[in-house]
Amino acid sequence: MALPAKLQNDLRQFQRLQQDLTVVDQQRQQIDLKLRETAHTLEELQALPDDAVIYRSVGTLLVKAKGKAEVAETLGEEKETLEVRLKAFERQVNHLKERYQTMQQELSQALKNAGIAEIEVPEGAGPSE
User: Does 28 or 56 have the greater pLDDT score?
Assistant: First the structure.
């Protein structure tokens, strides 16, 4: 049984939404990991004496920092930026999950109305909780 063109188009959009959700969630996870790493680095930095020799990464080079305060300021700014980016990605993931669930319900109903079995979502393909 051939699917109506609108339903085929809706299914393609649903698949693209699944892919978008996966990509954005992976990006969110990367930002979250980098944020935790930066926070841990800041904690370790605070444990060092004020006169400790510290190097910071500049591209592929390690350069001697002017002092602990300089590195702490830079890391603090990076942490704030990552927190803002993480919140933005979380909002985007939540929005995509809502769209995903709504579209899944709509497609299931449309397929049921067309006399076709409901959408089979492969394990791990849907929104993660």
Answer: 28
